[in-house]
Design goal:
It is a single chain. By secondary structure, the protein is an alpha/beta fold. The chain folds into 3 domains: 110 residues, 4-hydroxy-3-methylbut-2-enyl diphosphate reductase, catalytic domain (Cobalt-precorrin-4 Transmethylase, domain 1, 3-Layer(aba) Sandwich), CATH 3.40.1010.20; 85 residues, Rossmann fold (3-Layer(aba) Sandwich); 85 residues, Cobalt-precorrin-4 Transmethylase, domain 1. The chain contains 11 helices and 12 strands. The strands form 3 sheets. It has a 5-stranded parallel beta sheet, with helices on both faces. Helix 4 runs parallel beside helix 5 and helix 8 packs parallel to helix 9.
Length: 319
């Protein structure tokens, strides 16, 4: 039997779960522990099918809207991406036991948008149309109060006057480089526009992209572990391709790997989106290890020690 070809695998660090995702999953598990099944979850708690299926097995029921939640006193959890203000308002009206798992870094963006609006500024949101986080952020303010821009090209079409009081906020899971292009265009067109004191893109999104940049130009291919509907995972794939890697693929499970582009490669980069558990990275490495003799090297570009407390209405049980 012929020996397997040697493959140098560069593992990005940090990768995988961020503090907001850990908190969101903990929220559902603690709610199940405290109140028993079922616990309803509005929208996927995080964008990862493996995680969602695991929580379903524990008794979580996922719904897209609150009208799917019965009036039986069961708790309903709002996902990490955040929700429009109309959602908690409806939950309160129906006396539902609402538990908010919105990532605190998303909540920070919500508060920024509200403050700008209260101070009479017109608010621009840099983000991807239709993403749950964008829907949630736009839904913090009255309809029409937030203008969404997705690209620097769209900035050119904005009709605000130079004298208008303007401010911008951004989705937390954008490409750092893409966001910079849009923000530069906004600041060039509207020099007086106000932005966040500290950028809105979350630390985990930034760190994972920086780790990919560090090794993308050194490897023949890249595997990003994550779900197709995960914004931060999609951005990691794009970052790999833009920074010199000729082939990158986004895969959820080992069975999703497209092997043809990996034939004959000598080096491979591996990372995981912020909603992808490490067990899936291990599964994919095991699958690659069946075809190659792996030489693993971890490339660390940052260390993370962020953690967020559970929502108040869950904390007393945890102790």
């Amino acid at each position: 039997m012929s020996a397997k070809p040697i493959l140098n695998v560069f593992l990005c660090a940090p990768r995988g779960f961020c503090a907001g995702v850990v908190r969101a999953i903990d929220v559902v598990e603690h709610a199940l522990s405290k109140f028993g099944a079922p616990v309803y979850v509005r929208h996927e708690i995080v964008h990862n099918r493996y995680v969602v299926e695991g929580l379903k097995r524990q008794g979580a029921i996922f719904v897209e809207e609150l009208d799917e939640v019965p009036d039986n006193g069961a708790p309903v959890v709002f996902s990490a991406h955040g929700v429009p203000k109309s959602v908690p308002a409806e939950a309160e009206k129906r006396n539902l036991l609402a538990i908010d798992a919105t990532c605190p870094l998303v909540t920070k963006v919500h508060r920024e948008a509200e403050i700008h609006f209260r101070r009479g500024r017109k608010v621009i949101l840099v983000g991807h149309k239709g993403h749950p986080e964008v829907i949630g952020t736009m839904g913090q303010l009255p309809e029409g109060a937030v203008t969404l821009v997705e690209s620097a090209e769209e900035v050119a079409t904005l009709k605000f006057l130079p004298s208008d009081a303007l401010a911008f906020v951004t989705q937390t899971t954008l490409s750092v480089d893409d966001m910079a292009l849009v923000v530069n265009a906004l600041q060039a067109k509207y020099p007086h526009i106000l932005g966040p004191h500290k950028q809105d893109i979350c630390y985990a999104t930034t760190n994972r992209q920086e780790a990919v940049k560090e090794i993308a130009h050194k490897v023949d291919a890249f595997i990003v572990v994550g779900s197709p509907n995960s914004s931060n995972s999609q951005r990691l794939k794009e970052v790999a391709e833009r920074n010199g890697c000729r082939h990158a693929q986004l895969v959820l499970r080992a069975g999703d790997i497209d092997w043809a582009p990996l034939e004959g490669i000598k080096s491979l980069g591996v990372t995981a989106g912020a909603s992808a558990p490490e067990i899936l990275v291990e599964e994919i490495l095991a699958a690659v290890g069946e075809k190659f003799e792996l030489v693993l090297d971890t490339v660390t570009t940052a260390t993370e020690d962020v953690s967020f407390p559970l929502p108040r209405n869950l904390r007393e049980k945890v102790a």
